[in-house]
């Protein structure tokens, strides 16, 4: 690792006095000078920051501060006691991911603030300025006038310069499984959006002007701006409250049962508030800013952490072929059925098989808000776990455990060690956790400080047993897979299971927005790979359908990255299209390099990825409900070498609604000088495998 770090005490560095406004301002730029951060202290004592990109406005002067309830004090007016600066330039290697190494290069400014109200409290604001944006957090050092304290509100503001086009979800402390809305910022109407999506089991309505992060803007002068957060630990998830008149957004933290936001003690620090900005949409998708704001891995020897491609006894329960609960009949997690999935998985070279509905309790798990539903160690009588684990091992397959907590988190924490030891004893090394329902302890939300700490406890405890984690219905990810690389994926957004939702489901544009928003925080268990599009296969009354073409389902393995990548459909549906299924068999789940070739949020996305340790590439492209042709230059290939391109694309007559299963497979020889023009059907895509000859 190459790293340089230099601190300078710079009370005068970049410090300017503006006599007209009688305020003091300090300025720091990104390494390439494109991003400029200014921090000002007004005569009234307010501290505000401002961000520009290549001279264009990103964040107008926005104030910082806190309201504490214990001690009861408002931290809004400060004297700047000190300013330190630094340069960080290092390269680090992730355990797995979209690239084999990542550069962390930024300028840092640390501003020490003394409260003017007489409390004697000091805090620091640490800013890091990257070539593609800014991250900042609050830090409360050890000090005589502050020890244990309670946060009533974080008063961080983000003031926009104009009424930008905005990609947003309504605020909800318990669910992030919404479609994105696209409106002007002033036209946000969160409650109306919630009413529109009646298939969401809404648990916590925040208000008409409350919206979730991540939040994406596109400005009329050509900038793309993302607001999000990084490294959320021991702190609640941040939503944003919009003032439509001033276009000011203010942090709105998820409260606990009595309305408090966070319980802290010095020394402590908040998560990073992030602003990613570029005049290229491709740079937003490719940003590593959030990862770079997280701490290095806590796992000294991560050799046991392995990316996986897996199938699941899962989708058939969503479409009426089977059930989770044994008493309802058609129990899917029975020994013979699971063996069929193991056979198919082994035959096609996959790593694992998820089995849901294996354990007792599914008859009485949903909506009852009970403490004791699952014990996580008692299989149903028709699920012979010992014979199945032995059978899977013989076939080279690892079973993946499913732990649905039904929101009873205290029950799960009491039983976690026994459940994890049970997995180890059965030779199972990956768990999918679930948090459907209202949280116990009562009054906590999925996004509260208590639950954020729980997710961390699961990752840490799982690591002690050398287990990998895939969390569902959890808070949105914030780059913590760098720190806890065994926490490999999360759902935390509307995934493919919503194709079976009774109303809106998954719209064609949804997957072209996720990489600009939710996926900036980490991999998503979206569960791609559906090959049957009308979901009435086992229930003729079902009208739901998948709103993509088959070729787009292949492309999602590239555009929606996960190191735990599911092969979501049923074996019998794949057997009808084994030529197209070959791409799913071949596509890796770990990469040496990733390049975003073309992108526009809500419209299209094209990404190329290089296989880990091999000179082969895969390309995926997707579009929204509109057909389009995308030019593709293969100049990322090694010059002077020839590759065989296997192209899986929409047929000329393909259409997500009328003809989704129409695709064409063709092979051709290509080089780095080759240029292609490929058409994507409505709701379509293409996927390409490039193998060196």
From TrEMBL:
Keywords from the UniProt entry: Calcium, Hydrolase, Signal
The Glycosyl-hydrolase 97 catalytic domain, residue ranges: 314-493
Domain Glycosyl-hydrolase 97 N-terminal, residue spans:
28-296
Establish whether keyword Transmembrane is in the entry. no
What is the top-level taxon of the source organism?
A: Bacteria
- Which Pfam families does this chain map to? GH97_C, GH97_N, Glyco_hydro_97
Which cofactors does this protein require?
Ca(2+)
Domain Glycosyl-hydrolase 97 C-terminal oligomerisation as annotated: residue spans: 590-690
Q: What is the residue range of the signal peptide feature?
A: 1-22
Q: Does the keyword Calcium apply?
A: yes
A GO molecular-function annotation = hydrolase activity
Query: What does the subunit comment say?
Result: Monomer.
Name of this chain's protein: Glycoside hydrolase family 97 protein
Organism of derivation? Fibrella forsythiae
């Amino acid at each position: 690792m190459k790293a340089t770090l230099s601190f300078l005490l710079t009370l005068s560095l970049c410090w300017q006095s503006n006599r007209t406004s009688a305020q003091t301002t300090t300025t720091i730029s990104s390494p390439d000078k494109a991003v400029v951060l200014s921090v000002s202290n007004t005569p009234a004592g307010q501290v505000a920051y401002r961000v520009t990109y290549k001279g264009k406005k990103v964040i107008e002067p926005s104030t910082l501060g806190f309201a504490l309830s214990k001690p009861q004090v408002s931290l809004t007016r400060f004297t700047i006691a000190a300013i330190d600066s630094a340069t960080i330039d290092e390269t680090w290697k992730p355990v797995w991911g979209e690239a084999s190494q990542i550069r962390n290069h930024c300028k840092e400014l640390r501003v020490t603030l003394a409260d003017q109200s007489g409390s004697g409290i000091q805090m620091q604001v640490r800013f890091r300025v990257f070539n593609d944006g800014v991250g900042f957090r609050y830090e409360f050092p050890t000090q005589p006038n502050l020890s244990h304290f309670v946060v009533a509100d974080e008063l961080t503001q983000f003031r926009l310069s104009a009424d930008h086009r905005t990609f947003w979800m309504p605020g909800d402390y318990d669910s992030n499984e919404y479609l994105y809305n696209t409106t002007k910022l002033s036209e946000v109407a969160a409650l109306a959006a919630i009413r529109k999506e009646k298939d969401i089991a809404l648990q916590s309505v925040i208000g008409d002007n409350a919206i979730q992060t991540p939040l994406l803007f596109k400005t009329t002068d050509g900038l793309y701006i993302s607001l999000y957060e990084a490294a959320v630990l021991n702190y609640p998830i941040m939503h944003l409250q919009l003032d439509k008149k001033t276009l000011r957004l203010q942090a709105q933290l998820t409260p606990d049962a009595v309305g408090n936001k966070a319980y802290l003690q010095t020394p402590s620090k908040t998560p990073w508030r992030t602003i990613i900005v570029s005049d290229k949409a491709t740079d937003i998708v490719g940003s590593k800013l959030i990862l770079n704001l997280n701490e290095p891995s806590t796992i000294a020897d991560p050799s046991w952490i392995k990316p996986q491609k897996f199938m699941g006894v899962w989708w058939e329960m969503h479409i009426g072929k089977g059930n989770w609960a044994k008493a309802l009949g058609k129990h899917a997690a029975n020994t013979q059925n699971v063996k069929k999935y193991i056979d198919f998985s082994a035959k096609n070279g996959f790593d694992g098989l998820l089995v849901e509905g294996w354990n007792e309790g599914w008859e009485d798990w949903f909506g009852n808000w009970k403490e004791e539903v699952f014990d996580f160690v008692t299989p149903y009588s028709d699920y012979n776990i010992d014979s199945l684990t032995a059978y899977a091992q013989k076939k080279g397959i690892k079973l993946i455990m499913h732990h649905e907590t039904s929101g009873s988190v205290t029950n799960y924490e009491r039983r976690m060690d026994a459940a994890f030891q049970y997995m180890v004893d059965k030779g199972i090394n990956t768990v999918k956790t679930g948090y459907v329902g209202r949280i116990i302890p009562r009054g906590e939300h999925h996004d509260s400080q208590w639950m954020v700490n729980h997710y961390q406890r699961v990752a840490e405890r799982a690591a002690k047993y050398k287990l990998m984690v895939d969390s569902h219905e959890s808070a949105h990810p914030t780059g913590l897979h760098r720190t806890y690389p065994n926490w490999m994926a999360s759902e935390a957004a509307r995934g493919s299971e919503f194709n079976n939702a009774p109303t809106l489901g998954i719209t064609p544009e949804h997957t072209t927005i996720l990489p600009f928003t939710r996926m900036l925080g980490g991999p998503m268990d979206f569960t791609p790979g559906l090959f049957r599009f009308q979901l009435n296969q086992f229930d003729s009354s079902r009208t739901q359908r998948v709103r993509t073409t088959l070729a787009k389902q292949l492309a999602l393995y590239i555009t929606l990255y996960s190191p735990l990548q599911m092969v979501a459909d049923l074996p019998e549906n794949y057997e009808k299209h084994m030529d197209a299924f070959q791409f799913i068999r071949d596509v890796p789940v770990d990469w040496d390099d990733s390049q975003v070739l073309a992108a526009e949020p809500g419209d299209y996305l094209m990404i190329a990825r290089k296989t880990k340790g091999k000179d082969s590439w895969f390309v995926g492209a997707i579009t929204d409900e509109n057909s389009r042709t995308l030019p593709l230059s293969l100049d990322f290939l090694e010059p002077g070498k020839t590759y065989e391109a296997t192209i899986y694309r929409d047929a000329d007559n393909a259409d997500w609604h009328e003809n989704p299963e129409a695709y064409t497979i063709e092979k051709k020889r290509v080089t780095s000088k080759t240029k292609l023009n490929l058409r994507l059907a409505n709701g379509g895509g293409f996927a390409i495998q490039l193998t060196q000859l």
